[in-house]
Structures are given as C-alpha cells and as structure tokens.
Design brief:
The protein contains two helices and six strands; from the N terminus they run E-E-E-E-H-E-E-H. It has helices spanning about 55-65, 125-130, and strands spanning about 5-10, 15-20, 25-40, 45-55, 70-85, 90-100. Strands 1-3-4-6-5 form a five-stranded mixed β-barrel. A hairpin with a 5-residue loop joins strand 2 (about 15-20) and strand 3 (about 25-40). The protein is globular. The two termini are about 45 Å apart.
Amino acid sequence: MINRVVLVGRITKDPELRTATSGNTVTTFTLAVDNRMKNADGSRGTTFIGCVCFAQRAETVAKFTRKGSLVGVEGTLNQRKYQRQDGSTASVIEVICDNVQFLEPKPASAGYDEVPPFDDAPAPAEDSRNLDSLNLPDDDLPF
C-alpha cells in the first residue's frame, strides 16, 4: 500500500507552534490548494488541507512561514478521531509532513538580503569562458 501526498499551496493563517504533553513541539497549519479542474461556472475551487509537523521541522515552519506563504508539502495522510467539547466524536484527515519546502524568497522586511536577479550576476572570469584557453595535451584527457 502507498500513502504518499505531495501538495503545493498557500498557508491560510500563521502556523501554530505548541508543545505536546510529551514535550515534543508540534506545528499545525492549513494549506489552500487550488483544484486543477474548473467548476461549472469556469472558476477553480480550492481545497483546504490540514497539515502537521513535529520536532525541528515544526519549529522551522513556525519560524519561517506565515499566512500567505507558498510552500510545498510532502508527507502521509493520517486520519484521527477526537472528542468534541459537546461529547460528539469528530474525524479529521490531515497530512503528517515529512518535508516542507519554502517556495518563495525570504522577504527583505524580515531582515534577510534579497536574492539578486540573474541578470545582475557577475560575469564569469575570462579564463572560464573559453575552454580553448586551457593548455592541456590530448594525452592527459581521461576520455
């Protein structure tokens, strides 16, 4: 049996970092994922999926993401049941995250340096532009 989920979406509200009774850190967040199929009116629907991270991953997600962050999530589906305050039983299906990828650059407002555009990258050194400038005899080549 295979239980693998890969999703890309935006976080709907700031992730919640908590400490479980066992002492482990847990972060929960909801991911909004656009549906590929269009509705009858031509619009695309959105599916909201609960996600859970544990330990160091939980702390990292809580620290570096916020509402609206674009993330990629890889993990497994998990169904759990719990008692509501009114005594009824509720069932939840959520993704237990094995991997969370941050898919947007870090904002400059958070104190990080912005990544320069590719056009502003320094030109390669003159020697690395042309392989003919290497002075190697043919006998020294490994192929």
